[in-house]
Amino acid sequence: GFQCGIVGLPNVGKSTLFNALTKTAAAQAANFPFCTIEPNTGDVAVPDPRLEKIAGIAKSASIVPTRLTFVDIAGLVRGASKGEGLGNQFLANIREVDAIAHVLRCFEDEDITHVDGKIDPIADAETVETELMVADLESLERRITPLRKKATGGDKDAKAVLPVMEAALELLQNGRPVRHLELSSPEERRILKELNLLTSKPILYVCNVDEGSAANGNEFSARVAEKAAAEGAACVVISAAIEAEIAQLAEEEQKDYLAEMGLEEPGLDRMIRAGYELLGLITYFTCGPKEARAWTVREGTKAPQAAGVIHTDFEKGFIRAQTIGFDDYVTLGGETAAKEAGKARDEGKEYVVKDGDVMLFKFNR
Ligand code: GDP
């Protein structure tokens, strides 16, 4: 599955958030109990009101949401890239994830020490980013000399990889993360991905604000939002303290509590969805009397590969996919009506799946 790593300096609220994420009712939704893969890895349900709508129309007996994995990556301190503290392990853990949720402390609390003595989320973001950039810089410098030799010697692969590596290196030397690299071809983007650099991963800034600012953010989170907008990064405002509270409550009590706080939904729901979008993921649905289920694919995935997420046999024997757009499915009132209205399309091998498609695969066994 897809993984989103939670990083940040000590005492910013990472563990509080992670614990809330993995304890919350949403995480345990439907008939998939929350499961811990490793102590610091939590598999959470992706909240999606569309799934309930579909299940209602199809009269499905059960609902199975799709899931996203969060990893609590503790141990980042200044000097991590130099192998101080748990530095190396920390960086190795970041290498494994597809995207980064960067938690920034946007709350004041005299009882909780800030590692640098004052609340400054922008400076904190830079501290963390610097560690990641230094690690990438060193990794590239180590790899580029032998690559240059190979390229000069006529090696085809090396010749393709080298320009991308040179461009990434130059960007880092100018103090900028690799995710800002502008690449023109899908081939170059594939090469960059394979270099597996820490600063090439997409970023979601998570502003952890005080309880009173959960609904509208505060001065600190406003600065982070501005930074995120300038960088083209994603940003959510959340209060870890509130989320921890919500995670303890029964569903009914949650609603009252959220209303009291001026919130429409738990901040974690927004965070999960933002992580999902950040990863470039979309959802398609399958449904029947037994279950309505959401499935995750990357944007741009074609029908056979999407079918393969359910079972490899579906991909191997793919014939076609009966596809109904979500809006048609809901407005018309289900599969039969959509068929009668001519809105159930037969899509073939080249069809690119759209977010919200309700699909039924025909395949050779
Ligand atoms: P981590 O080191 O980043 O994992 O941070 P923790 O989640 O362990 O939080 C550090 C301390 O800050 C704990 O005492 C938390 O209870 C507290 N904390 C976390 N989030 C908030 C918050 O939103 N408001 C306040 N006042 N305290 C918080």
Your description of this structure?
This protein is of the alpha/beta class and 365 residues long. It folds into three domains: 3-49 and 63-115 and 201-278, Rossmann fold, CATH 3.40.50; 129-199, DNA polymerase, domain 1, CATH 1.10.150.300; 300-363, Beta-grasp domain (Ubiquitin-like (UB roll)), CATH 3.10.20. It is built from 14 helices and 13 strands. It has helices at residues 14-23, 49-58, 87-96, 121-152, 156-173, 186-195, 219-231, 240-248, 251-260, 267-278, 303-310, 312-316, 326-332, 335-340, and strands at 3-7, 36-38, 41-45, 62-64, 67-72, 99-106, 203-209, 234-238, 281-287, 291-298, 318-324, 345-347, 358-363. The chain has a seven-stranded mixed sheet with strand order 2-3-5-1-6-7-8, with helices on both faces. It has a three-stranded mixed sheet with strand order 4-10-9, sandwiched between helices. A three-stranded antiparallel sheet has the order 12-11-13. A hairpin with a 3-residue loop joins strand 9 (281-287) and strand 10 (291-298). It is flat, with a radius of gyration of 23 Å. The structure holds guanosine-5'-diphosphate (GDP). Residues 8, 10-16, 107, 109, 112, 208, 210, 239-241 line the site of guanosine-5'-diphosphate.
